[in-house]
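Hi team, as promised in this morning's meeting, here are the two structures we talked about. I've kept the exact order from the run log so nobody has to guess. The first one is mostly here for context; it's the second one we should focus on when we meet again. Sequence first, then the predicted structure tokens.
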Amino acid sequence: MAHFRRRTYATTLLVATFLLSSSTVTWAKPAGGADPYDAARDAEGRLDYKAVVVQSNRALETAQTHDRLVNLYRLLGTANALVGKNQDAIDAFQRLLAIDPDHKLPRGTSPKITGPFREAGGFWVDRPGGLQIVPTLPKDANSDKPLAIPVKIDDAMSLTANVRMSYRQQGESEWKTAETPVGASITLNVPPTDIPTKASDYVLEIYFAAMSSNGSELRLAGEAARPLSIAIRGPGSMTTTTTTTGAIVNGQPDKPRKPLIKTWWFWAAVGGAAVVAIGLGAGLGYYYGRPDTSITDVNVSSKLPALRF
């Protein structure tokens, strides 16, 4: 019996040791394993602003989407302001306003935060558009021919390293990309193999991004959810017009219009007018040329019987 108890105790101890080690493996997280973006937001929720600064800076070392980048610069500016690092807060807010020039702080924000934010805004007083990326889309695009698109970058803080173009035929799921370093003259090209001839016209969806040196999206022109578009013309098909709102309007080529004097309805109208004029003239001539019977001379002779008195 004692031997059985010793074996039972040894088995229990072994199981407990295994469970403890399993628990340790389950809950322990490797250093640096968490996404620093999520860690920064979690630290903000705990009001741990020093941790917000550390985690936001870590996140900025890796490629981020535009929306995440906006949040990171907001977190970094706010946290630096609250820990007393005003210049770092101003730098973060300047970058925030570069990529999101319409950004507003929530009403009731502490003056410790709004002060650096307003000072950062002063940098952009003469540049209200912030960092801008402006592609010039062509009015027409023909199939099986290269498509060259000039892009202009206005970047007062020199944040942009590359310009990326993403495109696809409408209805496709995958985006193709072309990228080029920023420079005085920027042109991105869609190769003719990506604009094939089809039986009818189709739409090329396209958007552009100013990219940082680590691949973050600083500013967009169009986006994957709401891309810009270009109508690709098939052989002998439609014309393409870009409206002031950027909409693409397709229609059959306008037929040359005949001169007015060569249209049948013009001469029919002229002939009808001539007939009316002739008839009216004849009627008026007859009316004014007939004898005037409006006054009639009447001679009345009356023989009255002699009256006798």
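And here is the second protein, the one for discussion:
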Amino acid sequence: MDQYIGIDVSKQTLQTFDGEKDGTFPNEPNLEALDRFIQDKKRKNKKDPVLIFEPTGAYSSYLRNYCIRKNLKAEIVNPSQSAYFAKATGNRSKTDKVDARMLYGYHLILTGKICKVPFQSEQANRIGAYINSFSLLVTSETRIKNHIHAAKQEGSAVSDLLTLLETHLAQIQEMKEEILQQALVFIQADPALEEAYENLCSIPGIGKISAIHLLHTFLKYPAANRNQLTALAGLDPMHRESGTSLHQRLKISKRGNPLLRRVLYCAAMCSVQHNTEWKRRYESFIARGKPRQVALIAIMRKMLLLSYVVYQEKRQYEHREDTVEINILIT
């Protein structure tokens, strides 16, 4: 039986529980104190432990890198799953010790699941950094635009203030272009990445930003299948059939990457309006009685899966007049 260790990650410390006792270790770059504890566990149990923790953004990066460096298996638990698990086990308090014990107990539902060493792609990390910075600027740009519009409507802002805000807005737009160019330079510096990027851009409706987001996803999850990719984008259907709730409208989960879902939505909206190929597919869904939003989501999913085929097969998209269905191409 595997030896599990639950670890609650915070900014400064790692709180552990190994089934017997609690421990606290500094969350530092090399995790030297935690490593001594892990090595001692390995000597006693004659096997490598499996670490269970939540991805807490930058704070869990040291622990993830440690697992990769030491070739240690880990189960990185989705925070929403761990939250539901904590409620199911009756946890009413939330402290570092309670969370570490809860994560240790999570191993009970891992029966039959093969835990693996975490995977990390330096290329995906670099592209992801560009994406996150670009997204931050887009959010700031939208808020400032809305603020300027409201101030003009209310007449509450003086001209000097509006000029200052508009200058700042122009700076944000310049930064967006600079970040996009830096991302493209990084991609074009690697022949394999450049080829993959160009192949994705060959798909009607997929532009620069969409292609960068898709490339990042495929690099980060190289072993994902069709269903997993759909879930990563939050486009997987959420079934609700319980009691009298037998005829509720089917919805998507929206539990995946919101940035990826957003760029796919924009790409699909643009494509069904300006590209005859995607417009024909969209209208075929409408002709079958699908609501417009459902038809648009179907186009988003087809775009995602078709992009994955093009990426995997390392070829450009080929338009076919006879229109073989995309879901046949990706089987």
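Starting points for discussion:
The chain has three domains: 4-109, 122-189, 208-241+251-329.
The chain has a mean pLDDT of 89.
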